[in-house]
Design a protein that fits this description.
By secondary structure, this protein is an all-alpha fold. It contains 9 helices and no strands.
Amino acid sequence: MSRPIDPFNEPVTMTHAAQPSRLVAFLELLVFVGFAWGSKLVVDQIIWKFSGPITLITTLVLLTIYMRYRGESWAGMGLRALPGWKSKLLILPQALLAIVAIIAAGALLTYGGDALGFWDADAEPVGVADRFAGIEGNLSVYLTWMAVIWTSAAFGEEMFFRGFLITRFERVVAGIPFAVGAAVILAALIFGAGHFYYQGIRGLVVVAAIGVVIGSLFLLYKRNLWPLILAHGLVDTLGMTARYLNLDV
C-alpha cells in the first residue's frame, strides 16, 4: 500500500491523476466555485456577517478531501514547505512588498474611481459599516474578527483564490495567448465578486484589482503562498485595528 498523502505538506507527485484535463479542471471550478457561491446564499439568511468565511472554509474542507482522493496536495498549489533558511528569510521582504502593492492598488482604484465620478472615496459602503458595526472599542468583537482574518481571509482566500483558482484556470485556458495572465485575471474577478455582497460595485472593482496584484505576486514568488498569506493577514489586521481604535484612516 502507498503511504497516505498529507494534503498540506506532501509535495505533489506529477502523476496523470494529479494533472486534471482541461475538462476536469473546468468542472472542478464549476463545482467548487458554484458550491461556495450557492452555499453562501443559503448561509446569508442565517448569519450574514460571517456567511463568507463559513462557506469559504467549508468549501476548502471539501476541496481538500477531493484533492486527497485525486492524490494532490496544497503543497502543489503554493502551501509548501520552504527549503533552506534563505527561502524562509525571503518571506518577510516579500510580504512587505506585497503589503505596499496591496495598499497602493487599493488606494489607486479607490481614489481613481472617485476622480472619475464612479463613487465617493470618503463614503464607506453601507454593507461595510453594517458588517463591522460594534467593533469600536469592543475587544471581544475585535478578537472575533482577528480570528476570521487569520483563518478565512489570510489562509482561506489565498489558498482558494490564488492557489486553487489560478492553478485550475491555467489548465482551462492552456494554449491561448497570455494564458497565465488570463488565469490571474479570471481568478481576480471571482475574488472581487466574492466581496460584492457587502462592498458593492466599488468593492468588486477594487478587490478584483488587488486580486490581480496578489495573483501576479503569486507567480513572481514562484507560486509560494506564505508571503501572500502574511501580507493579506497584516493588511486586514491594520484595517480592523483602525476600526477598533476608531481611527480615521
